[in-house]
Amino acid sequence: MPTELTYDSTARELATDQGVLRYHEAGEGPPLLLLHGSGPGVTGWRNYRGNLPVLAEHFRCLVLEFPGFGVSDPTGEHPMLAANAAVIRFLDGLGLREVDVIGNSMGGIVAAQVAIAHPGRVRRLVTIGGLGRNLFSPAPGEGIRLLMEFTDEPTRERLVRWLESMVYDPALVTEELIEERWALATEPATLESARRMYGKAAFTAAMKAAQAADTPPYWAMLHRLKAKTLITWGRDDRVSPVDMAILPMRAIPDVELHVFPDCGHWVMIEQKTAWESVVLAFLTRKDDSGSGEGAA
């Protein structure tokens, strides 16, 4: 298995009845679906490119690009509403009945929703921040407010402020990262899509609609999640503060929580080695099948 995987060598396309889904594939073994988060200039490749060499030693890694983020074909729906169906369309298109899933932030929420709605499709689930709801911290968090400011009036300065809110160590926000994110985030179609999610007016309207809805929010349904779940979080997350983890930690029946110190929202990047170690231990652990002999 090569230690360096390139964008071009891993890029794939899947034609579906709702446009082309683009993804990256690396490695062999049991299928592992990786779902990215949201935000200016985000892609699945940018979320997980640093983790692929390690994960691909054990799994057939499939990094899906959600519709509406500038890579896969948009469906015309709100990007967050289109994501769940895109996952099922993707799995069906590749003929995959059951997978393990890693979801970053929004990707973790999507993965949990898919696992609840289709319990036979997700064996084990790993989430990275974002899952749950604020219990003690203000909502929305600092990073979400900065994201809304950038989305409404995109400037380089606002992009940098938002990026710095994502990490514990601001040195991770390099000029290369800024330029990479700026190019995609300000592309007209991608920016318009982002405004449907994170423009202040759209965000406020969505919150009001959620409060008035007859259907329960996803976090109120986490007790139905059957997949073994590992929640990973940065202790210093300013986008989704760590108190959000309390509700899913209690509600999900078979769940573990690992909190990483000196770490913001991008756990898989900022605590790369530690995170990979914890995740691989969880995903490769044998299911409990013993009789309990020898227990105290």
TrEMBL record:
The keyword Repressor is annotated on this UniProt entry: no
Q: Which UniProt keywords apply?
A: Hydrolase
Domain of life here? Bacteria
Q: What is its EC number?
A: 3.7.1.14
Task: Give start and end of each AB hydrolase-1 domain.
Answer: 30-270
| EC class name | hydrolase
Does the record bear Hydrolase in its keywords? yes
The molecular function terms of the Gene Ontology recorded here are: hydrolase activity
What positions belong to coiled-coil segments? none
Q: Which PANTHER family match?
A: ALPHA/BETA-HYDROLASES SUPERFAMILY PROTEIN (PTHR46438), LIPASE-RELATED (PTHR46438:SF11)
Q: What is the protein's given name?
A: 2-hydroxy-6-oxonona-2,4-dienedioate hydrolase
Species, as recorded: Thermocatellispora tengchongensis
